[in-house]
């Protein structure tokens, strides 16, 4: 017969080997929380034509977006053909912008047109793309009308030079909260670009900025008004570059693309994403909304979950105490079951924390569910083992506590392993063959269930024995609650003493 | 077959038939005796999509802080979940500069009059009781407090939704079949309401929700207990008004700025993959039980199938929204549901090895395994109740949702693993066809003992 109980310190040491580094990591590094807890940013785009979710995902792949979620939507209130994109051959200054606005407003006899200017990199060259929305009710814009209206545009100054020259002098970049920024995006937006672009925007007083004329929609787009300082005034460039309309496209869909990511989306990154849609996806997009988002798990949910688990643990302790009232010192069973539970929670939290910084494992709202499942399973498993000890304590009256525990462990081993095996089969199949999206969830469960089985066999019962024998400085506890002598007797008398004490 | 066994078998067959009817993919539902239930599977945002509404503060003069928007968010989450916490919405507070908005995504909301239903659910929910003297007011008209300052001191309502006892709010029908919302005051308001109605008999008591009249009726007598609000509601309206009242008014007024239907966040490939994975996992469980426990294993597998069918039926009945993770959890619970059977069969095997007769071994095995099953499941039930209480009290719907599904799983698995398997065995044992211990995965030695023992006892 296996003498499992004799190796109790080995089993405890094994647990500590996982728990100690895990807990340290948890304290120092915490958990790598995903968007459900930490929040992040959201970006709503409206494409020119219908895209599939795979296309969108592929377009977003090159960007350093963490924990990105893509959701396609359909907003019937957006007029399908009510958005027109105009690509120019160059970036333009405010003079040309005003000219375009005037032309379009004259064409549609409306001052409430939504006209935005985005400077994006198209085929390696930075150009301005004009997005026109909010046409008067009942009016469906025609590409030809717009082409004619924009056929005679004034020359522009070289706005790229203005940007680069002024960026040298300014060294105080403001992050995303700036009122408006000139955007010089590349598909992989880098921090330096962002700084210069933002600085330039300040220096040139939004001359080349993304400008949104007031619209009636409730989108939270950054709004700015054109200011009196054109880019040309900051250096002496003459308006020599002719502006031509290269491409005009009209929207064909009411589709929306909602992107959610942990990564903060600064205007540069946004512009880069829009650029990717145009360059790689051959689809113009309109920015509907951008915002920072808070987690979808309410801020106090985590605290409530912890409180709930603590309350549940106390009740479980009391219940086990009551259920085991026929064996001596029943509270010990309750305490040990709860300790095994704490063990499993620490293993799951600790390993998740380590995996968080080691391989970028992210904790989402399902993590709470997984952890709660593990807690339920852990106690369930422990009680089955304890129940056998309870039964054997009454039947096997001539064995020491240690022997009874050992026998009980061996007897319940088949059941413990079989139950865990069926659960682990299911989980392993789900983890290995299931979709990537549930892998963190099933992986956490796999770890937790494994830990739960281990702790109920190798920890909970071992702790009972250690407590019973007054080891690990627990003798004072024993003296206080157990009533047995603190000095350890030896040999046959010890055995008798123990038998008397354990059988009450 | 004993009478009790026969009755149980009948019950099991009836339950299985009901579950099959509810689970059937194109089930016609139940539409008799005033019950209308379609038994639709609610799939989560990740699998099926739904609607996404962007809510913005509708009153520009109202101060919106991080706290109020958070409180509004939590209330909306509670209203959407309506108690059980199984609706799986995704609600996020958004911020752009100092402008707040709330993005609400509701799964499977893309049928019917969604705007109307959403609007009822997202209304501020300020219930007010006014004394309008001798003037009855038309339902749905806008209430202007400044016209009734003589009967309402300071232009303030006598009572508001804050005075209601949330646990007593419900929907019922009166004798004529009209829908009404039941309410009762709480704390001090009970006696104040009694006094007020006593002193104002003959006056019109006008009830407004967000300053829209929902009822204007003469006070007939002092109301010292629960009261009812009768308005012209549809059932859905009455229920959502009750829900809104139960959780209290939003701290800020919101309006829907944009509304869009959204597609699933997960591709169909990941759903298929997970379902296949689930099938593989369950197949392994079924095979394992069959190989390891033989005949009882087969019976346990049947009980598992019943467990899956019953649980899914209950999920459909109470409207649990299934996300991919929810399905994974469900599959996992099937794997866990064999636990009680494993416990029992291990015990039965032990008893058989100890030389007991089959019938006696089964009896003893059940008896011996019962305390483990009882205590372990009871502790899980305690956990569930605590989690549900916490989740519900503090508005953490994710916790209460978990507790709801887990407690259902535990209860149903106890029923199938204990009652169902036991009944199957009880049906089979007296027939003698299973009197072969090899069917229990036991070595040849115990065959003789058990069969001989049984014969000699006859």
TrEMBL record, chain A:
Subcellular location: Cell membrane
Keywords: Cell membrane, Membrane, Protein transport, Translocation, Transmembrane, Transmembrane helix, Transport
Composition bias, Basic and acidic residues: 493-504
GO annotations of cellular component type: plasma membrane
Highest taxon above the source species: Bacteria
InterPro entries from the UniProt entry: SecD/SecF_arch_bac, SecD/SecF_bac, SecD/SecF_CS, SecD_SecF_C, SecF_bac
Signal peptide (residue range): none
Membrane topology: Multi-pass membrane protein
Pfam families: Sec_GG, SecD_SecF_C
Annotated stretches, region: Disordered: 152-197, 484-504
GO biological process: intracellular protein transmembrane transport; protein targeting; protein transport by the Sec complex
PANTHER family for the chain: PROTEIN TRANSLOCASE SUBUNIT SECF (PTHR30081:SF8), PROTEIN-EXPORT MEMBRANE PROTEIN SEC (PTHR30081)
Similarity-based family: Belongs to the SecD/SecF family. SecF subfamily.
Described purpose of this protein according to its UniProt entry: Part of the Sec protein translocase complex. Interacts with the SecYEG preprotein conducting channel. SecDF uses the proton motive force (PMF) to complete protein translocation after the ATP-dependent function of SecA.
Complex formation: Forms a complex with SecD. Part of the essential Sec protein translocation apparatus which comprises SecA, SecYEG and auxiliary proteins SecDF. Other proteins may also be involved.
Protein name: Protein-export membrane protein SecF
Source organism (scientific name): Thermogemmatispora aurantia
Gene name for this UniProt entry: secF
TrEMBL record, chain B:
Membrane topology: Multi-pass membrane protein
Taxonomy, superkingdom: Bacteria
Subcellular location: Cell membrane
Keyword Ribosomal protein in annotation: no
Transmembrane stretches, start-end: 275-293, 298-318, 324-345, 378-399, 405-425
Signal peptide span: 1-19
InterPro entries in UniProt: SecD, SecD/SecF_arch_bac, SecD_1st, SecD_SecF_C, SecD_SecF_C_bact, SecDF_P1_head
Any Gene Ontology CC annotation: plasma membrane
Keywords of this entry: Cell membrane, Membrane, Protein transport, Signal, Translocation, Transmembrane, Transmembrane helix, Transport
Residue ranges annotated for the Protein export membrane protein SecD/SecF C-terminal domain, each copy included: 254-426
Pfam families: SecD_1st, SecD_SecF_C, SecDF_P1_head
SecDF P1 head subdomain domain boundaries: 156-252
Function: Part of the Sec protein translocase complex. Interacts with the SecYEG preprotein conducting channel. SecDF uses the proton motive force (PMF) to complete protein translocation after the ATP-dependent function of SecA.
Annotated HAMAP family: SecD_B
PANTHER family linked: PROTEIN TRANSLOCASE SUBUNIT SECD (PTHR30081:SF1), PROTEIN-EXPORT MEMBRANE PROTEIN SEC (PTHR30081)
Assembly notes: Forms a complex with SecF. Part of the essential Sec protein translocation apparatus which comprises SecA, SecYEG and auxiliary proteins SecDF. Other proteins may also be involved.
Protein name: Protein translocase subunit SecD
